[in-house]
Amino acid sequence: MPPESGELHNTCSTMKPNEVRVSDSERLSCSSTKILIDNGHGSDTPGKRSPDGRFLEYKFNREIARPIVLDLQDRGYDAELLVPEETDIPLKERARRVNSHCATLGKENVILVSIHANAAGNGSKWLNATGWSVYTSKGCTKSDNLATCLAEAAIKNLSGRKIRSDWSDGDIDFEESFYLLTKTLCAACLTENGFMDSKESLAYITSRAGKEAITNLHVEGIIEYLQGNI
Ligand SMILES: [Zn+2]
């Protein structure tokens, strides 16, 4: 169950709570962190679409990832798309790109957030699942802090909408052995920003307000994490 305080503090004993705040001048040092935004899948990925075929996940992921990068760049952060291509770049190559930055900059100076849309079924029929969720690899790492920052920003920006949670490991994120989360060396999270096989969920995440809220929550969550890391 979530803490009654409403604060999403990690219970990881080695983690510091994200309490530290920095001034604008100190914040400049945050921009030394390389922020990699991944937009999952590509124009040639089979499936990964709504049952009526009108919603394509690769396209949605890019419509969220690109403004996140631009917004962070506007604020002085070193953000870039991990996959600028439209086609599906294999996970192995995506991980190689991330780890190449880690080798150059140090893994502590790189973060990865992978943007996705969820599905409750196999894509053949409409279902009713809704909600936002964030995933990390298993165990207690800096990724858990990043996930908590993203979740706090999601609760704020997706006001009144469902936030899916798994408190069994002491924090709000789900833990899965997704390739990009386990094969990369830096803090890494994957967000599922609604369900492409739910008409109710799709109506929101494809709306202008929905896209803005999803974009903003990532920008705010990432900045909150970087500020807490000082
Ligand atoms: Zn996906």
Q: What is the topological layout?
A:
Elements: H1 24-27, E1 34-39, H2 57-74, E2 78-81, H3 91-105, E3 110-118, E4 132-136, H4 142-157, E5 174-175, H5 179-182, E6 187-195, H6 199-205, H7 208-228
Helix pairs in contact: 2-7, 4-7
The structure holds zinc ion.
Zinc ion (ZN) binds at residues 40-41, 48, 57, 116.
Task: Sum this structure up briefly.
The protein is an alpha/beta fold and 230 residues long. Helix content is 37%, strand content 15%.
Notes on the protein architecture:
This protein has 230 residues and is an alpha/beta fold. Helix content is 37%, strand content 15%. The chain contains 7 helices and 6 strands, in the order αβαβαββαβαβαα. The protein has helices spanning 24-27, 57-74, 91-105, 142-157, 179-182, 199-205, 208-228, and strands at residues 34-39, 78-81, 110-118, 132-136, 174-175, 187-195. It has a 6-stranded mixed β-sheet with strand order 2-1-3-6-4-5, sandwiched between helices. Residues 1-6 and 11-30 have low confidence and may be disordered. Residues 40-41, 48, 57, 116 line the site of zinc ion.
Features:
230 residues, alpha/beta, Aminopeptidase, 6-stranded mixed β-sheet, 6 strands, disordered N terminus, binds zinc ion
